[in-house]
Amino acid sequence: MKTYELENMNGDYIRGTWNESATFNLQYPVGGQWVDYHCFTVYGVEDEQEALELIMEAVYEQECLFGDE
């Protein structure tokens, strides 16, 4: 499992995880624990750099879709 902590456009921290296969999770900290808010699957990810780029793209898309909800 690879884990990446990112800061979103609002200055909040988000964590992205990749199971080193095809499954990704985006998580927010809630009450001291990381809680999934978006999961997605991408087949054929070749390396950690590609996984990080996919996570960053998903975070950006989620923020564009849902803004400050």
Shape: globular
Question: Strand pairing plus helix content: what structural class?
Answer: alpha+beta
Q: Whole-Å distance between the termini?
A: 28 Å
How large is the share of residues in beta strands? 35-45%
Mean pLDDT: 90
Helix and strand string, N-terminal first? EEEEH
Helix content: 25-40%
Side-by-side strand order of the widest sheet: 1-2-3-4
Taking pLDDT < 50 over at least 5 consecutive residues as the criterion, the unreliable ranges are none
Q: How would you sum up the major sheet? A: 4 strands, antiparallel
Q: What's the Cα radius of gyration?
A: 12 Å
Number of domains: 1
The number of E-state strands comes to 4
Report the total helices.
1
Oligomeric composition of the shown chains: single chain
Could you explain how this protein is built, in words?
This protein has 69 residues and is of the alpha+beta class. It has one domain (2-66). It has one helix at residues 48-66, and strands spanning 2-7, 13-18, 23-30, 33-41. A four-stranded antiparallel sheet has the order 1-2-3-4, covered by helices on one side.
